[in-house]
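seq/struct pair 1
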Amino acid sequence: MKSSWINGQTKYTHPSVLKISNTLKARKIDNFAKWRGEAKKSGLIPSNYPKLKKSGNLAELIGLILGDGHICIHPRTESLRISLNKNNQGLIERTAFLIEDIFCKNPHIGRKSYTNCITVTIYEKFLSKRLWITSGSKKNIVHKIPSWILSKREYKIRFLRGLYEAEGSYCIHLPTYTHKFIFKNFNESLLEIVYNFMIQLGFHPHTSKYAVQISKRDEVKAAVELLEFRKY
């Protein structure tokens, strides 16, 4: 049987398919309504999206997203994309594990051409609302941390772990015996949150324009161990 010309084509690859898509959209015809209904009945597509279970893994993932992630709103769904250094295989695997644990689905892991960037991506409805994270650019957002993270020391630690894995660095300069544990970010509210959390956990950080830093040798060691920084 001869295959149809439309097989394998999408509105992004064929002008005729794009014309059909635009015509159906203009006439408000949902060409996939029947299929979508059957898919929901069979469980292929979730019929509802319950609140995410509050846990240390979720707190850590939220920290990772605020550091290296981005939520984008699409017409019928939302996407979560976390961009990571391809040389940090441990963090890539941990990020995928956290997403699988929380959303019960395997994320797509891909490499951006001509860069050292690996992206870990999932698509699902209501990601922004369920993760308590504003979609779009994060630079000037005034971040508000969910009250359930504020309520437990364990959740604060895991939240900070996600942030530091995304935007943190641990440095030792042997000639001067200098130790530094640094979190860098351009968002002022996020820097303030990290500073306050570190204070609450018993550390004595100091701030610069785009960083929160701990410099006392014993505190640096304790903070790195507490957050299990770079331990996968």
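seq/struct pair 2
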Amino acid sequence: MAANLLIAFDGSAAAGAAVRAAAALFPGARATVLTIHEPAMSPITTFRVGGALMSPELVERNLTELEQELVAEAETAAAAGVRLATAAGLTAEPAVAPGPRQPWEPILAAAAERDVDVVVCGTRGHGAVGRAVLGSTSSSLLHHADRAVLVVPEADVRSDGPALIAYDGSPAADEAITAAGRLLPGRPALMVNAWESPLRHSLSGRALTSAPLTEIRDFTGDLETWLRETAEATVADGVGVAEAAGLEASGEAVESSSTAWRVLIATAETHDATVIVAGSQGHGRVASVLLGSVSAGLVHHAERPVLIIRAP
């Protein structure tokens, strides 16, 4: 069954990249292209019509005209998004809704109303600083969404690459694989487990491994072997879950002294992945703190689409 998408569209280059990425990842999907417009009764628009200098009747008339202009502009943008989506192979329809300058709430309300599978949005800027601006929409969607969110950077990537799936053996990771099998059928999948040796990548660990006692060296060697084999076994489990979900899967355990999201991004670049998939647990501000270490790192730094799957 084709995926059901909601694409947040504001006419920007980033929004255009989001449409193209959605079409590449979910060919033949149904999409609602949603444009949010500022409500005419906001303080900013009231000031624009000169509310402090005009009679109530004139203010009301100007607000009505401004509302019509805002809706018309949003409809024009949504129609442009539909044309772009249709040209990319999606079955698309336009939608507009009033909302604040940080419009994640009406986006999620529209997603719930249409019971979509994935909410799609673009980003602006590069790196953590540039994407701090993104926080108003994309990061808020990640914090509050109760369904999958695809965040797309402005740069286009190849459309036929594998899906890299972050896998740590958790229920959230299993859910991410199951969702990937449902949403990305037929796409090769690479399970990646990022692990770190506390011995080679810390001063105390290196001191321990260089200790003169044979028993200590044997212990540290056994621990290194156990850590590596555990990561490889986790990856093998992930490959099994992926194959059960209908994916053509392979796996890779990657050791690194860096953070997990950096390892995942570097591995995605090495394999030229089309999308990075990661699971998360729960939603809301408290849960998003736990989500932040990997999922938010991916979203704020990856130069390719990131699909965050919500665990039930």
